[in-house]
Amino acid sequence: PVPLPLAEEPMLLLGVTEFVANSAAFVYFTAGALRWTVTGDMLPRRFPLRLSTKGLGLFAPQLQELYPDRPMELRVWARRQPLLSCRPDGLRLALHGTAETSVLLPNGTRAPAFLLHLDANVTGKPVLTASRIGVTVSLRG
Questions:
Q1: What is the rounded average pLDDT for all residues in the chain?
Q2: What pLDDT is stored for residue 113 in this prediction?
């Protein structure tokens, strides 16, 4: 049970438990909805890294040599269901995903570039001031 405060004035109170959040994550994961495809034109123009062999050439020079100045695509998906837990230090979210990049070739096919497994534990703690609501976020690998 979650104790709710007694209201002396009219107010709207919304409570979301770990069970609700984790049930939603289970449904989305099971349905295959936690998949995204990112292309270069989806990134903001001011984003410091371009999704192309030229932009990623700093990290993988062989890409630029094999496929000069070709656009790339990033596909990201969850390998396991995300899990949320409520802790005294904030909300913790465990994420387990995979990111796969491909080079888009002139004939419309994709050449695989690299595959990364991404595991992260993110902690978010609400910060409330008189005029703002914010969150501090920390990342643990």
A1: 90
A2: 93
